[in-house]
Specification:
By secondary structure, the chain is an all-alpha fold. Helix content is 66%, strand content 0%. Bound molecules: zinc ion.
Length: 109
């Protein structure tokens, strides 16, 4: 894959994440929450909100990596680990084009 293709992929991913994050940031539909007799339902809504926060956190982390990977393209350091400076590896970059750390350092994060 050429660096131009990588850049196009990363830019597309960034747009995708921003769109998804904008969706999860929307306030919950108040009409959907009924403060009725069933406490169980309120609990499941609370849990859903928690799950949403987790997803949002993960998206934010991925977004930071995508932004960093784009920076690395500019710096000509794309494909090298931000921690140890070693090669991230073709296979890993193919699976995760916004990887900015090698497998070992990503595991330590
Ligand atoms: Zn490393």
């Amino acid at each position: 894959m050429s660096m131009d293709e990588v850049r196009a992929n990363l830019t597309a991913k960034l747009t995708e994440i921003d769109a998804e994050m904008a969706q999860t940031e929307q306030p919950p539909d108040q009409g959907a929450i009924s403060f009725g007799k069933r406490i169980g339902e309120g609990t499941s809504i609370a849990i859903d909100r928690f799950a949403q926060v987790g997803v949002h956190d993960r998206m934010q982390r991925t977004r930071a990596d995508v932004v960093r990977a784009l920076e690395k393209l500019d710096e000509d350091s794309y494909g090298t680990c931000d921690v140890c400076g070693g090669a991230i590896g073709e296979g890993r970059l193919e699976a995760l084009p916004w990887a900015v750390l090698c497998v070992e350092d990503a595991g330590r994060r």
